Amino acid sequence: MQNGHPDTITPLTASDPSSERLQRLVSEQKSRKKWLLVQPVSNTSMMVDSGTVSMPLNLLMVATLAGELFDVTFIDERLGDTVPEDLSGYDVVAITSRTLNATKAYAIADNAKAQGKIVILGGVHPTMLNDEAREHCSSVVYGEIESVWTELATDVLLGSMKEVYKASALKPMTNMRHPDFTHALQSKRSKKYSSLIPILATKGCPVGCNFCTTPTIYGKNYRYREIDFVIDEMKYHQERLGKEKINLSFMDDNISFRPKYFMELLEEMSKIGVRWNANISMNFLHKPEVAELAGRSGCDLLSIGFESLNPETLKSVHKGSNRLDNYGTVVSNLHKNGIAIQGYFMFGFDNDSEESFQLTYDFIMENQIEFPVFSLVTPFPGTPYYDEMKPRLRHFDWDKYDTYHYMFEPEKLGGEKLLENFVKLQKEVYKGRAIMQRMKGKPLNWVWFVNYMMHRFTKKLTPEMYL
């Protein structure tokens, strides 16, 4: 970006010698190398990639960077796009992967590698298990690609790839360019993308919950973009879509960690008429002024990881920002300002008992949580929690690392009782009567539709589905 305008991109030809070398190599190309970028679909049996899906912001950032120097083809299997078996039209195949679609990503990578292509794997799973990922590709991008892009692109042009690209230091986000959405929108099936526009203001999270991958991917340092640039990106989307009231979804892991920055951003957003949602920690939501400003700036919904109603469980996972005595205050503050809550609740911890499910049900109903989301504890590879729980894990089938499969036997409850209660809770919360009670007095919007879909989905649940 230059002059704060999101339509322009900071050129690579700064005074950085490595950037100048890259530009020279680009100018010497007889023809532009061809990249295939792939967002794989997951093989999980649950509703992970069904219905509308969000635009893959990280892969769009790769497409934006690569598109300046190379010819880029963008494929999102979640839309129904298919990766060709014959990859002779491409020089580079780059695939992003989470744990739950790692098996699919590896299959695509193996095929590309067998055809002699430069194969790059990036995303959460290859970062957390880069030794495993290296068996399927030429190179693994460890963490974010922006911080290693110049080196990676140079090596692609030279045809001399390193096994792992890992930044010695992560780049500041100050002048971070916005992604070029045309790469994703070229698909004939792009209407399957959610109308929520993904946007990023910050990266990193210093909290360090022991089940979280964020510190490894984006670091424990908290980085953020200049507010003017974030607002300009929002205005760019308003112009692109020809309307003021656009719906934005922040992809930040912890957008409110720096309260001063967060409040200044919201104050500026309140002037431009957008609607938005975000994941947010509970650090400051007990303060009425935070919820008031969020509502005034156009917030429709906040996603909050309540995780558990058991203080011992919260302590065991280092979820220090969650204080049970604040839960009710946080909910009340948001509801008073017209903000709906997507509440996340996890089960399967060693401290869980049958009472944990009843406490959670009572909390959800009493506080009218609009969109409760339930998951089973899943120790993800590369996290401290995974290392701790590895001897107890039932399997290492990555397709089932989707937070909806039973991973280990909890000490107090046992597996059978865990799944029985897990299914029962979901059915009870999404009964028609319970939906009416939770949603009483709420505006008729998409959250009602989500509840209706969950009502249909939960009616079919059985404990066996989670094995």
UniProtKB/TrEMBL annotation:
- Where is each Radical SAM core domain found? 189-411
Region annotation (Disordered) maps to 1-20
Q: Where is the composition biased (Polar residues)?
A: 1-17
- InterPro entries in the record, alphabetically? Bacteriochlorophyll_C12_MT (IPR034497), BchE-like (IPR051198), Elp3/MiaA/NifB-like_rSAM (IPR006638), Methyltransferase_Class_B (IPR034466), rSAM (IPR007197), rSAM_horseshoe (IPR023404), rSAM_sf (IPR058240)
Q: Name one Pfam family in it.
A: Radical_SAM
* Gene3D superfamilies according to UniProt: Cobalamin-binding domain (3.40.50.280), tm_1862 like domain (3.80.30.20)
The UniProt keywords, alphabetically, are: Iron, Iron-sulfur, Metal-binding, Methyltransferase, S-adenosyl-L-methionine, Transferase
Segments forming a coiled coil: none
Q: Which cofactor does it need?
A: [4Fe-4S] cluster
Family matches, as SMART domains: Elp3
* Protein name (record): Radical SAM protein
Q: Which organism is it from?
A: Prosthecochloris ethylica
